[in-house]
Amino acid sequence: MVDQMTVKAPPEDIEITGEDQDVKERKLKPLRPKEFQPVDFLIFGLSVLSTYCITWITFKQLTLLSGALGFVVVWAVLFIFCYWLVNRQLFTKQVAIDRFIASIVSLGAFLMVLPLILLTIFVITRGWALLSPHVFTSTQQGVSILSKSQTAGVAHAIVGTLEQVGLAALIGVPAAILTAIFINEIGGRFTRVTRVVVTAMSGTPAIVAGIFIYAIWIQAFHQGYSGFAGGLALAVLLLPTVTRGTEEVLKVVHQDLREASIALAAPEWRTVWSVVLPTARSGLVTAILLGIAVSIGETAPLLMTVFGNKVMNANPFSGPQAALPLMAFQQIKLPLQSEINLGYTAALVLFILVFTIFILARLLSGGRKRGGGFSALRSRIFTASVGSPASLMNEGNADGAEEAFDNIISRETE
Amino acid sequence: MTVVENNAIKKKRSVGGAGRLDAMEPTAGEINARGVYAWFGKRLVLENVDLLMEKRKVTALIGPSGCGKSTFLRILNRMHETIPIAQLAGEVELNGVNIYDPKERAAAARRHIGMVFQRPNPFPAMTIEENVLSGLRFNKIKGIDTETVIEESLTKAGLWNEVKNRLKEPGGGLSGGQQQRLCIARGLALRPSVLLMDEPCSALDPTSTRRIEQTIQEISEDVTVVIVTHNMQQAVRVSDYCAFFLAAENEPGRIIEAGETTQIFDHPVDPRTNDYVNGRFG
Questions:
Q1: Domains of chain A with bracketed CATH
Q2: B139: closest CA of chain A, how far (Å)
Q3: Does the ipTM exceed 0.85?
Q4: Quick one: average pLDDT of A327-355?
Q5: Mutating which of A252, A258, A264 best tests the B interface, going by the most B Cβ atoms within 10 A?
Q6: Distance of CA A392 to the CA centre of its chain
Q7: What is the pLDDT of residues A118-129, one digit of tens each?
Q8: Closest residue in B to A279 (Cα–Cα)
Q9: Burial class for B36, CB neighbours closer than 10 Å (0-12, 13-18, 19+)
Q10: If you count residue pairs, one on A and one on B, with CB atoms under 8 Å apart, how many are there?
Q11: Nearest residue in chain B measured CA to CA from A260
């Protein structure tokens, strides 16, 4: 929108020969009509400030109202009104309405992001105290009430979580992708039933997944608690998320490509394997990441399957294991402050772990950025890098579906 | 391609399938449609179409929108049946072999009868050379000098000089016209007997269109070309033979007139053909 309204080319392309200063200046100034000028920032800032003052006077001086929430709400409403009024006075009606709507929408977006920011700050401030390299290398083995709080670590929980989620992904992701391929590519009489079941599954309470695995694996087969049982329970939760995500991504792959492949005499499985999946690769990674994100933070299903452990148990197939979310849950219930702090540290480490996995997966799955060490590595790992012709994707590019649920994941710059 | 490579293709084709198409030589062929009917659901869209498309010639299918040209084209390489509600009747013979014979596999027919679509559709996840080789890869044809195939196919499609230094770049990075020629190269790499083109230039600018038309002329020395076009001038420029399709309101499409292009455009027999080629309707 803004780009289309740019009237003049950037100044370096223009040769100025004329003597008229006016013409020269007009030529040199690239126009971006919708861009925020300093005066607009001033209007914005003054509106914020003045409405704050009005709210303060109303709250603290004129009335007996109190409470931070009420203050913020009144302030926001007043601001939007004031901002509209000022723009109405200074500019046209269109500008005022435009900015009025824009500020409402921005406020909504801000309200959505705010809890996430607060949550992050909360976990970081609580967990920061105990965070040190030591935490990543030691366990709770031999840690008693009397020992110093710095001696305990979360290494056993990191190992446990990685193994459980890894197993869950190993079991769940192929099943989910196959299910999505069945729904979207093969179809037939059972497509709708499958889709309904998957949708219903995504509503499964996490604790039910835990009880389910407890009943059919631990009880029925007389197995003990183990990381593998936890992996099974997490796979149950991961399956519907990844299936739905993959399905959305496959839908965006244009039918033209499938036809092209069929016209080259490719069998159906070849079309899916060599054309559809590679085209949707970047979106697939997002779908898988979403599934992992869902399962990595689950506590309830782990209660009855991995049970928790204070010492390192690297074997996921036998004996109770620790897991980061489970450890956070169990520690925070304990009475001592040092124990509670360790729980917050476990939560913070979980945060760090999730971010690391996301960033690694993003880098490996390959954005459209070319060059650099990583893309060289990438092109060796994967057969090709993505550069989709815009015309072939419904949403404009291969990541159309990805963008739909990409608000969780920070993207590389394009 | 060398003799060894030809044998590799032939060998591959003779293994497995019982159909005669599997054993067919990869040379230009004539394609003969007899009594072709087509339905979408219960609606008849094509009625009793007979058309012979001669070896190493360009046949243009012309006619207004919705007259069944594209449907007919897609029947020629068994793409019509990929649409769930589509049905058909009749015979299509490639060098005397009915491709709808129950013994013949659809994939075997498509290997001999390639197709280029309206919108350029190179595989976005593949590089230029992978795009060219995709047909061979899909059909597990091995023992072929891939570099020769790449150069030969791209040269025939008139794209070699433009892309020879960036074969490892994604196919999506090319311009629209180049992408379409890449699709032609991709089709040619399988050494088809016939190449079908469904309005290959309708999404392209005039320069690219001219380039594609030139390519069509060049490849028609090796393969039989059937092209659907809405552009009369294009039909005149590229085709040797022409078939005029027309569907009256609520009626299925039929061939009104077919023959040499000069004949159809200069001395049409049917008044409706005359009206259409002179731009009086449609």
A1: 36-126 (no CATH), 149-408 (1.10.3720.10)
A2: 6
A3: yes
A4: 90
A5: A264
A6: 26
A7: 999 999 998 888
A8: B125
A9: buried
A10: 106
A11: B121
